[in-house]
Structure formats: C-alpha cells, structure tokens
C-alpha cells in the first residue's frame, strides 16, 4: 500500500521564494557581521545548526518564528515588522 502524506506543500511563487532567499542572505550577513558562527547563533536561537543553515538559504519549510528570532537576536531589520506607512516617514 502506498504511503499517504498528511499534507503536501504547494510550491511558492517565484517572487516569494526570492524574498525568502534574500531574507536568509540578509540574516547570514548580519550574523557574520556580528562575528557569530552558525553554531553559536543556532544555540542562541535554540535550534539545530541544520535549521539555521536552511534559514540562511531561505527555505520555506523553516518556521517564520525562527526567521523573526534570528532577526531579533541580530538586531537586524525584519521586513514584516515595518508597516508600509512607516517607510514614508
């Protein structure tokens, strides 16, 4: 009998994939700028180093909370924290 998956993730639009990859890249640059290794930041976040590697690649399977925690720990801008009206001021 074939194995049935509980759910299957639909592919994201290319623009969304690109945005996640850019966010992961920005967080990786912020980490390096702070002088943290991936292991150190992963420990600070309470995640496995493999999760941080996936995050820095912009993987859509990484929980959004992990992206937010990394941004907070690195004091990096996180695009969803800024309201569109705030950018005009």
Describe it for me?
By secondary structure, the protein is mainly alpha-helical. It has a domain at 34-78. The chain is 53% helix and 0% strand. It is built from 4 helices and no strands. The chain has helices at 14-34, 38-45, 49-56, 64-73. The protein is globular and about 40 Å long. The protein starts with 13 loop residues before the first helix and ends in a 16-residue tail after the last helix.
Number of helical regions: 4
Alpha-carbon distance between the two ends: 60 Å
* Number of DSSP strand runs: 0
> Helix/strand/pairing class, anyone?
mainly alpha
Please mark out the parts with pLDDT under 50 across 5 or more consecutive residues, or reply none: none
Task: Assess the beta-strand content as a share of residues.
Answer: under 5%
The overall pLDDT, averaged over residues, is: 86
Q: Percent of residues in helical segments?
A: 40-55%
How would you characterize the largest beta sheet?
none
Radius of gyration: 15 Å
Shape: globular
Taken in chain order, the helices and strands follow as HHHH
Give the key terms:
89 residues, mainly alpha
How do the helices and strands line up, and which of them pair or pack?
Layout (H helix, E strand, L loop, with lengths): L13 H21 L3 H8 L3 H8 L7 H10 L16
Helix pairs in contact: 2-3
């Amino acid at each position: 009998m074939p194995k049935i998956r509980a759910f299957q993730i639909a592919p994201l639009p290319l623009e969304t994939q690109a945005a996640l990859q850019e966010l992961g890249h920005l967080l990786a640059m912020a980490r390096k700028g702070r002088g943290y290794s991936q292991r150190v930041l992963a420990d600070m976040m309470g995640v496995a180093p493999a999760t941080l590697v996936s995050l820095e690649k912009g993987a859509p399977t990484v929980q959004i909370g992990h992206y937010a925690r990394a941004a907070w720990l690195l004091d990096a801008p996180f695009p969803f924290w800024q309201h569109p009206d705030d950018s005009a001021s």
